[in-house]
Amino acid sequence: VWRRSLGDGYSGIAVEDKVLFTAYRDEAHDVVIAVEVESGRTIWETRYSAPFKNKYAEAVGPGPYAMPQVIGNAVVMASGNGTLRSFNKQTGTLLWSHDLYARFNGTKMPFGYSNHPLPYKDKLIVLAGGKGGTLTRITGAGASAVVALKQSNGEVAWQNLTFDNAHSSPILINVDGQEQIVALVAQEVIGFDPANGRLLWRHPHKTGNGLAASQPVWGADNILIVSSAYGGGTRALYLRQQAGKTEVRELWHNRRIQCLNGTILRINDHAYLSSGQNSPAFVVAFNVRNGDISWQERGFGKAQLLHADEKFLILDEDGRLAIARATSERVEILDRAPLLDKFAWTPPTLVGRYLYVRDRKILAKLD
Q1: What torsion, rounded to 10 degrees, do the Cα atoms 187, 264, 346, 303 define?
Q2: Burial of 178 (0-12, 13-18, 19+ CB in 10 A)
Q3: How many CA atoms lie within 13 A of 307 on its CB side?
Q4: What's the CA gap between 124 and 268, in Å, rounded?
Q5: What CA dihedral angle connects 236, 241, 247 and 248, to 10 degrees?
Q6: Which of the residues in the chain have pLDDT under 70?
Q7: ∠ Cα 107 109 114 (to 5°)
Q8: Residues 6+ apart with CB under 8 A from 359
Q9: Which residues of 14-37 are buried (b: 16+ CB within 10 A; e: fewer)?
């Protein structure tokens, strides 16, 4: 439908009504941009200083990595240097900001902060990864791994816990009637109370260099899937309430299945992902109940997956877009085409019949 130039970065694409939001890099600045979905025309853009150099800056660039999140009347953006900002979504005007490293002694990540805050009621639950956090409702500075901020003004509602942060974003689940937030952090997966940050459970999941990036996946059968590369592999945990506490039982652990920075899709009793620490990678289907691999498909770099209209969309890091039919037994590639340039790490966004994609140079809308 259209394509336009865009600066460097990997930020996902958020679409609300007729406006698209993403972010890109301009020298030492991150830029949040609002774009008209019909034409690709810029509505507004806000740039701010965000000095950061990725450990492998020459190869992959300095980000940004997180998606601008549309939350109420705001757009919330995390930058690679560990800063979090909230902007008015109509104008791009700054509403509030936090330096997570300076204020909460957050885990400084040499590959760039990329977590998305989790909206919960009128709060944002933010993973900072600080050391020495204690349960408190007193606002102010202090080391805390989890911080709840008021969406309206960024004030601290509570702060709690201690752990080394990773790149994965938290999810909200319900375990037999109890709401919990689950986070895959550097060396473990944890569950905590969204009302106050109280730790409910933890389970080891060791990842080399703390590079856990993919988001956990929760099922209605109380099975939680977590995956990482760098030796982490994939494991399934069964959660249930027992005598007022959360019981965690590991069902299986398969080191051969490694999701580095892609999406994991669960459909019925199978999950689908791009497995591999380096390219080439495999698109893999596995059974969530026992970890057995059902099939592997070659021919893709590390990829992002979407599922719609009983078909899969596969966008790999080399910029190849494929349409496939996949079941637990087999996969059939219906069509594929070169579309973007390396590295195309940004997950595509599907809204109705339109697919929004980007690489480190362009932003495009496909019918």
Answers
A1: 100
A2: middle
A3: 13
A4: 31
A5: 10
A6: 57, 132-143
A7: 100
A8: 319, 340, 341, 342, 343, 344, 346
A9: bbeeebbbbbbbeeeebbbbbbeb
The model's pTM is 0.94
What number of CA atoms fall less than 13 Å from residue 297's CA on the CB side? 24
Give the integer Cα–Cα distance in Å for 304 and 314: 6
Residue type, 364: A
Token pair listed for 44: 């507004």
Question: Helix, strand, or coil here: 60?
Answer: helix
Q: DSSP readout, 132-156?
A: S---B---S----SEEEEETTT--E
- CA 252 from centroid of its chain's CA atoms: 24
Q: Taking the alpha carbons of 298, 301, 306, 309 in that order, is the dihedral positive or negative? A: negative
H/E stretch holding 49 reads strand 42-49
The residue assigned the tokens 């719609």 is 308
Instruction: Please list the alpha-helical segments (H only) found in the chain.
Output: 57-60, 100-104
With tokens 């929004």, the residue in question is 356
- What gap in Å lies between CA 100 and CA 337, rounded to an integer? 41
- Position 143 scores a pLDDT of 64
Q: How far apart are CA 136 and CA 54, in angstroms?
A: 34
Tell me the three-class secondary structure of 150-205, residue by residue.
Answer: ECCCCCEEEEECCCCCCCCCCEEEEECCEEEEEEECCCEEEEECCCCCCEEEEEEC
CB 130 within 8 A of CB 144: yes
Residues 206-215 pLDDT 10s = 999 899 999 9
